[in-house]
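User: Some background: our group keeps a shared notebook of sequences we're curious about, and every so often someone picks one and asks for a predicted structure to add to the entry. Today it's my turn. The entry only has the sequence so far, pasted here. Could you supply the structure so I can complete it?
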Amino acid sequence: MSVRAPRFSTNYPVVLRQGPEMYSSTICNISVGGACLLGNPWLQKGDRMMIDYAVGQTRATVVWQVGQMAGVKFDDQLSTTGLNCIRALKETA
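Assistant: Of course. Here's the predicted structure to add to the notebook entry:
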């Protein structure tokens, strides 16, 4: 059994890209392995996307979706810099 990475609350705006389409979203919690996104009820389990954030980008897959929330798993773990950048916004939000 794998250990679940710690999750951190945040309120961080990101851009989701699927092919040529771009959508605004908000990360409400984050870990090195995934995130919970708010504001995209059209997302469906299995959807793939690129998530753009202030200091980088990461590919992700939707693993669950309920109403306005969707959980995504990152293809590769976030760097410490990326995680801390996203976490830090909570302090000013």
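Suggested note for the entry: Residues 10 and 90 are 5 Å apart (CA to CA). The mean pLDDT is 90.
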